[in-house]
Write a structure and sequence with these properties.
With 367 residues, this protein is α+β, with helices and mostly antiparallel strands. The chain folds into three domains: 163 residues, tt1808, chain A, CATH 3.90.1570.30; 42 residues, no CATH class; 123 residues, Replication modulator SeqA, C-terminal DNA-binding domain, CATH 1.20.1380.10. Helices cover 44% and strands 17% of the residues. It is built from 14 helices and twelve strands. The chain has a six-stranded mixed sheet with strand order 1-2-3-4-5-6, sandwiched between helices. Helix 1 packs antiparallel against helix 2, helix 1 crosses helix 4 and helix 10 packs parallel to helix 13. The radius of gyration is 23 Å and the shape is globular.
């Protein structure tokens, strides 16, 4: 199988939530990729698993010549690689390994530990297999990680050249306005939180994320500030017994009635958040492995949409945990502090994870 075909297969598996552990990422993504890149993965003097560094272990050491590490690779569960770069750098520094790779299967970060700056500043390139097209992913993996390029030293030379290339600064500057437009258009949850908190600082009242979302939409459409934005408070949703969360004090503000279709039956919801909860419960009822697969997907930039422990939903934000988390089924917590646009993204991810039959039998749009 060529590396491009493997990448295509991995992308499909990521969308369906097949890689639910570090072992699954290693065996289903990393090792087959190394094989396609020319590495003799069964030769443990060249591809060394659990390489020892001062009573600690790096997941994989790629060696040339034998038993001399040239590249360290650390593997994490999908969506849980945040903060692991520091540990990887410590390993690489100790033995003077020139290149390090941190991957959760979807994201691949290539580092030069010997360069200057913070960890992120020594990252040569970050590859997201679901965001980049297959040709770009293939090119980058070949460029930095193919066996022939690593052995010849071309991989390291190329990485250093890319790191020092002034085009990197130019590309960043070119993409800054695009990033800002994307934040406005996609309504990233962190941006909405910042707006909500700033409004509270200014007037003492904290708007709902839906109000912030509508404000951004009007800014995009009219390209001007609103003179006023009145927050409308409505009663919390009264759940039917069938869809009442297992354990929750959450209050969901109703915006518009939303009807969706599941397996030929129409379900009414009084808000996008209620519809999301219903969808998750219905999908779980039909497919008991759905929540495990969904949890293995990469979620928001700083948040987990679904987790076994509700404190994992909002890292560093304990103030959001009690008010904006719901035990959607016993033992599983779902975050609800999202705009309608983000809720649609979450629902779309959920439908990617289930089989095609359930996906085709579910019709919902909360926007």
């Amino acid at each position: 199988m060529a590396i491009a075909k493997h990448i295509e297969k991995v992308r499909q598996g990521l969308r369906e939530g097949r890689f639910t552990s570090e072992a699954a990422v290693s065996q289903g993504i990393l090792l087959p990729a190394l094989h396609e890149l020319g590495w003799p993965i069964f030769d443990t003097s060249i591809v060394i698993p659990e390489f020892s560094v001062e009573n600690r272990r790096v997941d994989y050491a790629l060696c040339h010549p034998e038993n001399r590490p040239t590249v360290f690779i650390e593997v994490k569960k999908v969506g849980l690689s945040e903060g692991a770069d520091r540990q990887l750098f410590e390993y690489a520094f100790h033995l003077g390994v020139p290149m390090a790779v941190l991957t959760d299967g979807q994201g691949w970060s290539f580092y030069l530990p010997g360069e200057q700056g913070h960890y992120d500043e020594r990252r040569v390139y970050k590859l997201d297999l679901l965001e980049r097209d297959i040709s770009e992913a293939k090119s980058r993996l070949d460029r930095y990680l193919s066996y022939s390029n690593v052995c010849s030293g071309d991989a390291l030379k190329t990485a250093r050249s890319d790191y020092q290339n002034v085009a990197r600064v130019r590309i960043i500057r070119e993409n800054l306005p695009k990033a800002w437009d994307a934040l406005l258009k996609d309504q990233d949850s962190l941006l909405l939180d910042l707006i909500s908190e700033k409004v509270e600082d200014l007037c003492g009242y904290k708007p709902d994320l839906e109000d912030c979302s509508q404000f951004l939409e009007m800014q995009i459409q009219n390209n001007k500030h609103l003179d006023k934005h009145e927050v409308e408070r409505k009663p919390p949703v009264k759940y039917t017994e069938q869809f009442k969360p297992a354990n929750s004090n959450i209050q969901i503000r109703t915006v518009d009635n939303i009807n969706f279709v599941f397996k030929g039956q129409e379900f009414p919801s009084r808000s996008a958040k209620e519809a999301m909860i219903q969808i998750f419960q219905l999908l779980y009822k039909e497919d008991s492995g759905f929540l495990d697969r969904f949890a293995s997907r990469k979620h928001g930039k700083k948040r987990r949409y679904l987790a076994r422990e509700k404190k994992e939903l909002y890292p560093g934000r304990p103030d959001l945990v009690e008010q904006h988390s719901v035990e959607v089924v016993e033992g599983w917590w779902l975050g609800t502090n999202y705009s309608r646009r983000e809720i649609q993204v979450i629902i779309n991810l959920a439908l990617e994870v289930v089989g095609p039959q359930l996906r085709n039998e579910t019709k919902i749009n909360v926007l």
